[in-house]
Specification:
The chain is built from nine helices and two strands. It is mostly helical. It folds into three domains: 93 residues, no CATH class; 66 residues; 33 residues. The protein has a two-stranded antiparallel ribbon with strand order 1-2. The longest helix is centred in the C-terminal third of the chain and has 38 residues. The chain is rod-shaped. The chain starts with 7 loop residues before the first helix and ends with a helix.
């Protein structure tokens, strides 16, 4: 994948898996490259180019290959950000600080994402596919920052979300069913005061008029 400035979490996850398939490169990126050295009078010195042996050349090739792997996965603007650095580790760390921030900034981002994770719920008019895509974006972002949830936790939260979704559907169906049944029942009801359908005697307009007339007559009489 190519890092374009807007997809760092996705890029980092993909690149980590890819580079770990060539674990010597991953070791160079995370721990720094080994420099060919020699021991002289009990002290360690860097070797001259003329002193390199076959093993030294292999180490240098791995160092260059680690840089090459990262370079090939960067957009032009991201390439310019790290092209002057000497090692793949420096490049990797620079990108990490740029997009994840210092440890303090990183912790702040983790707290915000954990908050989103704990309060995650389905949005109105959102389908299941969109809901899971949004949920997985949060999980992947947390994973990129080093916060990983177990499969048990993820299965639990997904089950809760599905239960909420199913509950909402059942409730909506029940409410619609009750409303339809009520409307149907109302149509079948016939008032025995006026013999018209749609209401019972207590709700009959004719009965209400009769009661009002009786009250008026009573007031006139008194």
């Amino acid at each position: 994948p190519s890092l374009n400035g807007n997809n760092y979490s996705y890029w980092k996850t993909r690149m980590t898996i890819f580079i770990q398939s060539l674990y010597q490169l991953w070791n160079i990126i995370t721990n720094g490259p080994e420099i060919p050295t020699k021991i002289f009078n009990g002290q360690k010195f860097s070797k001259l180019d003329s002193e390199y042996n076959e093993l030294d050349y292999k180490l240098l090739q791995l160092k260059a290959k680690a840089k090459h792997v990262i370079f090939c996965a960067l957009s032009p603007s991201e390439f310019n950000r790290v092209s002057s650095l000497d090692s793949a580790k420096e490049m990797w760390d620079r990108l990490m600080v740029t997009y994840e921030g210092t440890n303090q900034v990183k912790d702040t981002k983790i707290n915000r994402l954990v908050h989103d994770y704990k309060l995650f719920t389905m949005l109105e008019n959102e389908n299941i596919s969109s809901m899971y895509a949004r949920f997985n974006d949060i999980i992947n972002a947390l994973k990129g920052l080093g916060k990983v949830y177990t499969n048990h936790e993820l299965v639990r939260i997904r089950k809760i979300l599905m239960d909420k979704k199913n509950f909402s559907k059942k409730e909506l169906k029940r409410i619609k069913g009750d409303t339809s049944k009520k409307e149907k029942d109302e149509k079948e009801v016939v008032c025995y005061e006026c013999d018209k359908p749609g209401h019972i005697r207590l709700e009959c307009p004719n009965l209400k008029k009769k009661k009002e007339n009786l009250k008026k007559k009573a007031m006139i009489t008194t």
